[in-house]
Amino acid sequence: SVNKMSFKYEDVENIYKKIKSMKQKGKNADYIPDLQIVNPNIYAISVCNIKGEIMNFGDYRTEVGIESTSKVFTLALALNMYSIKKLISHVGDKDETREFNSIKDVLEIKNHTINSFVNAGAMATTSLLYDKTKSNDTNEKAMNKIILENMEDFAGRTLKVNEHLYLSEYKTSHHNQLLIDKLVSYRRFYGDPQTVLKSYTKQCSVMVTSKDIAVMAATLANNGTNPITHNKLVNEEKVEYIVDHMAQHGLYNESEQWWESTHFPVKSGVGGVIMIVIPGVMGIGIVSPPLNKYGNSFKGVETGKLLANIPIY
Ligand code: GLU
Atom 6 (ligand 1): residue with closest C-alpha? Predict the structure, then answer.
């Protein structure tokens, strides 16, 4: 049961019912074949406060691909290896001006660095984990392992890569490939392109539930300490950079509009995940696969906006 420092159960339940019955205006991501065929009716909300108390609604046991929500955790890994200064100079912390995988933004934004949450910057962030003294094969294995284990530490349980989803995305990843080629040409990419593309695509294919996302978010809300396992995963100063990045760039070019209506740091994924961090209070995971025109979960965004209007006790 959740007492202090959370929402009232009934308040979230009302929002759940309201959005569940709302007419669906989004549609599943269609540029990744395996995402297009996911059941569009999946809908779940989970809340985990910093004491580790959890509330779940709807399909909270159903796993979906984490997709871009993984970018938050790979940024955390990169920050455990390198300074904030290095992330800013090598990857960027600027606003995107176009869509989530814009090639034009890579060409036009100053220094060709955008931020760790658009596809280009996220792949550049993953490339920071590449060890140039080792072979591509060794790197691929090591990167896949550390990326998965890190997400498991945040979720507090064993997670799995959906190999079918991975191959489905990898085989159709020409656009991401092109983004990497541009970054390489500007020397804004820090590992072997194919190896990093594979690891990045794999990090996106990790399967999670709304409950996993809530616990992962609660770890950030709790200054980097998982509220269930009590493992300290990131130091405070770096958590601040990550949460700030979410506040600025979490929903691609819907970020500003979202911030104005919620003031919630957030990150989306094209599998339909919305992850919200309320620092010092709680983490929220929402899952609904159909996306709005910005590439963010349509019902997830609507749910978040309503959650911003209920009191925290
Ligand atoms: N794996 C997806 C891609 O690289 C992630 C995009 C997203 O979730 O927004 O296109």
Answer: 68
